[in-house]
Amino acid sequence: KDLRCRFSSLGGSGCWYSCSSSVMLVGDSGVGKTCLLVRFKDGAFLAGSFISTVGIDFRNKVLTVDGVKVKLQIWDTAGQERFRSVTHAYYRDAHALLLLYDVTNKASFDNIQAWLTEIHEYAQQDVVLMLLGNKVDSAQDRVVKREDGEKLAKEYGVPFMETSAKSGLNVELAFTAIAKELKHRSMKLPNEPKFKLHDYVKKEVRGSGCCRF
Ligand SMILES: Nc1nc2c(ncn2[C@@H]2O[C@H](COP(=O)(O)OP(=O)(O)OP(=O)(O)O)[C@@H](O)[C@H]2O)c(=O)[nH]1
Ligand SMILES: [Mg+2]
After folding, report:
1. Closest listed ligand to the CA of 32
2. Angle between helices 33-42 and 171-186 (to 10 degrees)
3. Chain-wide mean pLDDT for the chain?
4. 8 CA distance to ligand 1 centroid (A)?
5. 28: how many CB neighbours lie within 10 A of its CB?
6. Is the pLDDT reported for residue 1 higher than 70?
7. Which ipTM did the prediction report?
8. In angstroms, rounded to a whole number, what is the distance separating the alpha carbons of residues 5 and 70?
9. Structure confidence by residue, pLDDT tens digits, 168-210
10. Which atom of ligand 1 is nearest to the CA of 37?
């Protein structure tokens, strides 16, 4: 499915392209999908008791990528097993998927393979995919090493970064990287160098420790 991009000319303010695309957040219940979205959309962290998502929900956010407005429609899925069939129905329309695990929860990491199988089955073949290890602010509870995430991502050829919905680490970057990739795919300008999502992520990513900045 193509991205919807259009050229707009509005009076004296010139012309611009705008694109709209859909991004879906997937992963086990409790990994922080809703918190990541709220952090990105509102710049806040949802502390307090955990309210598990029921069914599916979405928020819109407009980003400006290299002078082009990209509207991201971000679908927040429910990680709980009983809502899986709802999620399946939405995969087909997603241009990008952010697949999350929780670095303080080994089971959520072990389930990534099953998620990838599901993605392979239901999502578009050319879907933009990125693996995120969330909750890196909880250093003392960490059970999944950064290297383990990197290794798994490399194995499957997907870009990877660690994030924290709580501190905000790499949250903006995760969505910006996706938006850039989608924008480049939909507007192939003749003189523009090809955008490489892997390289961009490698260059821009911040580590969770003090010494990686
Ligand atoms: N320390 C820490 N806690 C987080 C972070 N992100 C989410 N949490 C906590 O983890 C719990 C689950 O977060 P949610 O965002 O609701 O999880 P979810 O993936 O949307 O879960 P479902 O909706 O059931 O699929 C909540 O108690 C959050 O406060 C994070 O980056 N750091
Ligand atoms: Mg949720």
Report:
1. 1
2. 80
3. 90
4. 39
5. 22
6. no
7. 0.99
8. 9
9. 999 999 999 999 999 888 877 777 778 899 999 999 998 876 5
10. 15
CB 71 within 8 A of CB 109: no
Closest ligand (CA of 78): 1
- Alpha-carbon distance values, 79 to 86, 133, 209 (Å): 11, 15, 28
Place of tokens 């952010």: 98
Question: Which ranges of the chain does DSSP label H, i.e. alpha helix?
Answer: 33-42, 84-91, 106-110, 112-122, 146-156, 171-186, 197-204
Q: How far is the CA of 50 from the centre of ligand 1 (A)?
A: 7
Look up the CATH superfamily of 19-207: P-loop containing nucleotide triphosphate hydrolases (3.40.50.300)
Backbone conformation region of residue 163, classed left if phi is above 0, alpha if psi is from -120 to 50, else beta: beta
Is the C-beta atom of 159 inside 6 A of ligand 1?
no
Q: Are 133 and 98 in contact (CB under 8 A)?
A: no
The C-alpha angle 130, 6, 189, rounded to 5 degrees, equals 65
CA distance 174 to 23: 11
At 184, give phi and psi (nearest 5°): -65, -35
Instruction: Pick the atom of ligand 1 nearest to 165's CA.
Output: 31
Give the HSE-up count for residue 37: Cα atoms under 13 Å, Cβ half-sphere.
25
Q: Are 91 and 122 in contact (CB under 8 A)?
A: yes
pTM of structure: 0.92
